[in-house]
C-alpha cells in the first residue's frame, strides 16, 4: 500500500506499493510511479513520466513530460529537467524528446539536464552540473558544461 500525504495532490492511480508521496507534491493522472519510491515534498510530476521502482526524488523537483527514470535512480534536491529544446510561450511541440535516466544513476542537487539526453546506468552527475550531452554508463561528470571526470569501477560499491 502506498503512503500518500493528505496535503499532496495525486491524480494518478499508477502508484506502486510502498511508495511514499510527501506533502505539497502534485502527480498528474497519466504518470506512472513504481514500487518503493520516495517522492519528497514540493515536487511536480507530469502525465508522460515513468518512474521505476526504488527511486528517490528529493524536494523541489519537477519531472516534465518525456522523462523516463529507471529503477534505483537518485534525484537530488532542485534538479532542473527540461523537455523543450526551443521553448516559446504558447507554442507547444507535437511531442517532447525523451530524457532517460538509466537504472542506478544519481543526479546531484541543483544539476540541470537538457532535453533528449540519456544518463547511463550507474552514472553520477555532480551537484550543479549542466549536462548538455548524454552521459555514458558509470561515468562521473561535473561542471558547466558537464565533463567526464572518471569512471566508476564496476566491482566497487558506488
UniProtKB/TrEMBL annotation:
Pfam families reported in the protein's UniProt record: Hexapep
Keyword terms of this UniProt record: Acyltransferase, Repeat, Transferase
Annotated InterPro entries: Hexapep, Hexapep_transf_CS, Trans_hexapeptide_repeat, Trimer_LpxA-like_sf
SUPFAM superfamilies named among the record's database cross-references: Trimeric LpxA-like enzymes
Family the UniProt entry places it in: Belongs to the transferase hexapeptide repeat family.
Protein name: N-acetyltransferase
Organism: Duganella dendranthematis
